[in-house]
Amino acid sequence: MKTFVASRLGAMAAILIALTGVMFVLQHVSPLDPVKAQLGAQASAQAVADRREELGLNEPVLVQFWHYLTNAVTGDLGTSYRTRHPVLSDLGSFLPATLELALFGIAIALVLAALLAFSTTLKWPGAQVLRAVLFTGAAAPMFLLGILGLIVFYQNLGWVPANGRIAVPNPPTGPTGLLTVDGLVHGRFDVVVDALQHLMLPALVIAIAPAVAIGRVLRSSLMTDIDSDYARTARAKGLSEGRIMTRHVLRNSVGSALSMTGLQVGLMFSGVLVVEQVFGWPGIGQYIAQSIPVADFPAIAGVTLMLGALYVVINTAVDLLQAAADPRIAAIGG
Length: 334
What we know:
Elements: H1 2-29, H2 34-39, H3 45-55, H4 61-73, H5 87-121, H6 127-139, H7 142-156, H8 179-185, H9 189-225, H10 229-236, H11 241-279, H12 284-291, H13 297-325, H14 327-333
Helix pairs in contact: 1-4, 1-13, 5-6, 5-9, 5-11, 5-12, 5-13, 6-9, 7-9, 7-11, 8-9, 9-11, 10-11, 11-12, 11-13, 12-13, 13-14
């Protein structure tokens, strides 16, 4: 098991270094001069030369890459050309909104995936209707699904707000940055309710496609294991189908679903960036959308590195969870 954990952590570190290297190369091949972007086009030649010396841009490329890598490891992602603030500070301001939306999306996706898998496997009433609705939603692009959701649930029914994250004045700003959590901590239940109203539709939009992907994999595994020898033995002992499913079949089927969950959670963050534009959500999607038109490379690179690191860390965690659930994986993979 120790060898397996070490190999996965080593692979994670190698991938993150490679991703940092890609961003470093893209910065160097970019036609935009970072010094002129910081100082302005009217800066004197001496000011430009002094700033290049200060930033270490006159040093050998390998030395520059080492500085870039060590700075990234310590959280120094440079300064945004647009906001003139450290990129890490900007990400700290925008990330909580994106993180809260993604967490609610993940929770809804897992619930829908479990309903899809169990209802179709155990042939619950209405299972085919649920399956049809989820598959139809997953087939639509996220931005179109978001627009349709606003037309139905905001314009026609008035159940949800149109955009934004909160409508209550003076919401709490700490300690987590997640409004639903901070509202509970400060006893502001009006904030919690309003934040949930703003969250539900965009979270549902980003949850449908992952729910279908996870649910299909889980259902396939359940269908395979439900007719296995140990399941038939449990039936012979008089156990109900529900108890057989939860106590015996699910544990043996959850490994493949965990793998798909890790993949979908990583992909979900890219979907969140699109959904944020549709719903006017003040998260990383808004930050990157404002940075791209002005070629704010430090901001773009910072968001890319952050999302890449999240994706790699999540999938590494899933690998370790799978190994913990089934020690055979560690024995083979190690």
